[in-house]
Amino acid sequence: EGLLTWFWQHRRLLPFRQEPSAYHIWVSEIMLQQTRVAAALPYYERFVAELPDPAALAACPPDRLRKLWQGLGYYNRAANMQKAARLVCEQYGGSLPADWQALRALPGIGEYTAGAIASIAFGIRAPAVDGNVLRVFARLYNDDADITKPAVRRRFTGLVLDEMPPDAPGPFNEALMELGALVCLPGAPACASCPVAALCRGRAAGRAARLPCKPPRKEKQRLPVTVALVESEAGLLLQRRPAKGLLANLWQPAAFEGRSLDCAGLDAALAPLGLQVEWLRALPPARHVFTHRIWELSGWQGKAPAVPLPAGYAWAQPDELAERYPVPSAFAAYLPGRGL
Hints:
It catalyses: Hydrolyzes free adenine bases from 7,8-dihydro-8-oxoguanine:adenine mismatched double-stranded DNA, leaving an apurinic site. This is Adenine DNA glycosylase. One of its GO terms (biological process) is base-excision repair. Keywords: 4Fe-4S, DNA damage, DNA repair, Glycosidase, Hydrolase, Iron, Iron-sulfur, Metal-binding. Adenine glycosylase active on G-A mispairs. The protein is of the alpha+beta class. It folds into two domains: 2-126, Hypothetical protein, domain 2 (Endonuclease III, domain 1); 221-334, Nucleoside Triphosphate Pyrophosphohydrolase (Alpha-Beta Complex). 42% of the residues lie in helices and 15% in strands. It contains 15 helices and six strands. It has helices at 2-10, 15-18, 22-32, 37-50, 54-59, 62-69, 76-92, 100-104, 111-122, 131-140, 150-163, 169-182, 201-204, 263-270, 318-323, and strands at 221-232, 235-240, 251-257, 278-289, 293-303, 313-316. A hairpin with a 2-residue loop joins strand 1 and strand 2. The longest helix has 17 residues, at 76-92.
């Protein structure tokens, strides 16, 4: 009761809470899986304005969908959402099903997202356990088990379900998420502001800041990437990435992963395109960090006469780069002011 009272008094007024339809909750939860709320809000508002329901999402051209998602990363989330939207239109008349199992069966919807949609949109008694909630419960119970292990996550999910009031599953789940996001913070919990501090065993034991327990992170693989920023009167040279793997189907300046190339090396790499490039200057080094790897970027800027390009390549004018071609933010350092 104290947690819910705190939630109604202190919750953030977010657009998907003001209109908590199943679709809006779904879009927001998928976006927030890897993105902070403040950063995700402009993307959310633009996304639902252009794609207001599952039918619009299902019909969206894939490149336009990737463009709407540009900057959020983890683009397979958007692709899975579109697959799920098409199934929702085919099997459920265009509305997300009010059933946890049916939600869980849709592409890209895991246990947490299914629980969030089911409880918040439909009032179904289903837990929604994310990293914030795991942290809260590890501290509440002074539990130093490894929260990355599936068995531990299942046990904590059971604890959440045991504590969940039958008449307010959605607000309870949201309150736990909000508590983890605003008060029960990683490394530095604001225990003095916590509505359940008196119940917290981790705080009583003086261990709250050290919980939860996780294994040490693995060192990320570092890869050199050489970028060729080639422009002609027809625009900037872009290439489409492969249909599978990292940043699948996105467009990028010509780039060569795992290779550190000088101008002569770039000439050889670009020779199949028939380009005669005049190299103008070296690009400053840049870095982009992914979940499991780090790109160490370098390269050259050059100009070339426009030539017809094979499939998978294009010349892009500035307005096309800003509005049409989805380009990953990994290259933002080399494309300032171009819509990235």
